[in-house]
Amino acid sequence: MNWLNSEAFTVFGQHILWSDMVGNLFGLAALALGWRRSIWTWPVQFLAGLILFGAFFGHLTGSAGKQAVVMLVALYGWWQWQRGKGRAEDGHIAVRFATWRERGAMVAAAAAGTVAVALLFKAYPNLSWDPWPDAYIFVGTVVAMYAQARGMVEFWFAWLLVDLVGVPLNFANGFAFSGFVYVIYGALVLWGLRDWWLRSRRDTRPVLEGAPA
Q1: 3-state secondary structure of 135
Q2: H or E stretch including 11?
Q3: What is the reported pLDDT for 90?
Q4: Which residues in the chain show pLDDT less than 50?
Q5: Any domain includes 213
Q6: Would you say the pTM of this structure is higher than 0.85?
Q7: What is the Cα–Cα distance from 81 to 33, expressed in whole angstroms?
Q8: Measured between alpha carbons, how far is residue 108 from residues 21, 136, 161, 203 in Å?
Q9: Pfam families in the record, alphabetically (predicted)?
């Protein structure tokens, strides 16, 4: 598995690692599958997290820990979508806007989680290259994936907020391919946001078994 942490190629002076490239391509595929509301978004996301865990483990422990959490949330998302499958008329997960209470809870959890994780990173400097933005991305990713698992349109807004910090941070710390992928994430997120937004306005009431759609 050492080849994953070797250099794949160099572009514009940036050294691209195999693990960084492969892991983020899987992450991009997972986001595209999430846009299509395919349940396969979760195993692909889990695989992306596993590869990136291997990329970060040993020298960026905090980032490796983030990927471990991502894998756990991916398992939760798989379970949640399996349980909720069939709620929409097309057989996929039904999407909706979060309630104001849910939004408040997610914002509060994101704020408290970012502070807590950043303080942890500051107490143990070997866990992170830059405590505050790294904590922001860490917690923001988890919140975004939770919202996705619950079929909330706010999932896309959360990803946009993560992108705003993730792009410059990855470039600054040598993970150029991650930075490029985050730029593509931004475009894909806008398309996915439009699709889920429009779907949330449609009738997503459950269809009784045996009844015509």
Answers
A1: helix
A2: strand 7-11
A3: 64
A4: 203-213
A5: no
A6: no
A7: 13
A8: 33, 13, 15, 30
A9: NMN_transporter
- Whether 7 is in a domain gets the answer no
Specify if 130 maps to a domain.
yes
pLDDT of residue 101: 96
What is the span of the domain harbouring residue 93?
15-200
What is the reported pLDDT for 5?
62
Maximum distance among all alpha carbons in the chain? 60
The pLDDT assigned to 13 comes to 64
> Has residue 42 been placed in a domain?
yes
Q: How many domains does the chain have?
A: 1
> What does 152-172 look like in DSSP terms, one character per residue?
BTHHHHHHHHHHHHHHHHHHH
Q: Are 134 and 62 in contact (CB under 8 A)?
A: yes
What value, to the nearest 5°, has the Cα angle with vertex 159 and ends 158 and 160? 90
Residue 40: predicted pLDDT: 93
β-sheet bridge partners, residue 15: 10
